[in-house]
Amino acid sequence: MPPRGPGRRRGRRWIERLPATDYYYPKTVTPGGEGVSRVTVEELEALRLVDLLGLTQEEAAFRMGVSRKTFWRDLTSVRRKIAEALINGWAIQIIGGDYILRGERSEVGGE
């Protein structure tokens, strides 16, 4: 992750599973082309917990080990990125982040 300005370092989030794939794209777009919306693994986990599993934001934030405000920012960000990709016909790339995979002792993440 590139250096950031003043403020606190972004904390790691707990995730329960890695995505099955790391790239989605419309038939009219080739992978790696222009118009790519980049989503982090932890943003995708936030979306999965609330929109797929139906957890409240408070429950999901607890499972990821972050505050509700931090969780809300991740959820808002991923929803905007996915909507932007769908409306504009862009690809969606799932990339790194800073997370810990629940159930494994080793820390995973990066980029």
Characteristic key phrases:
111 residues; Arc Repressor Mutant, subunit A; three-stranded mixed beta sheet; 6 strands; 37% helix; globular
Q: Structural class given helices, strands, pairing?
A: alpha/beta
CATH topology of the domain at 34-110: Arc Repressor Mutant, subunit A
* Global outline: globular
Radius of gyration: 14 Å
Poorly predicted ranges (pLDDT <50, ≥5 residues)? none
Q: Which whole number gives the mean pLDDT?
A: 84
Query: DSSP strand (E) fraction?
Result: 15-25%
* CATH superfamily label of the domain at 34-110: Winged helix-like DNA-binding domain superfamily/Winged helix DNA-binding domain
The span between the termini is 5 Å
Task: Give the proportion of residues in helices.
Answer: 25-40%
N-to-C order of helices and strands: EEEHHHEEE
- Strands in their spatial order, largest beta sheet: 1-5-6
CATH class label of the domain at 34-110: Mainly Alpha
Number of strands: 6
Count of alpha and pi helical runs: 3
CATH architecture of the domain at 34-110: Orthogonal Bundle
Query: Main beta sheet, described?
Result: 3 strands, mixed
Structure description:
The chain contains three helices and six strands, in the order βββαααβββ. With 111 residues, the protein is of the alpha/beta class. It has a domain at 34-110: Winged helix-like DNA-binding domain superfamily/Winged helix DNA-binding domain (Arc Repressor Mutant, subunit A, Orthogonal Bundle), CATH 1.10.10.10. It has a three-stranded mixed sheet with strand order 1-5-6, with helices on one face. Strands 2-4-3 form a three-stranded mixed sheet. A hairpin with a 6-residue loop joins strand 5 (97-101) and strand 6. Helix 1 (41-52) crosses helix 3 and helix 2 crosses helix 3 (68-88). The radius of gyration is 14 Å and the shape is globular. The mean pLDDT is 84.
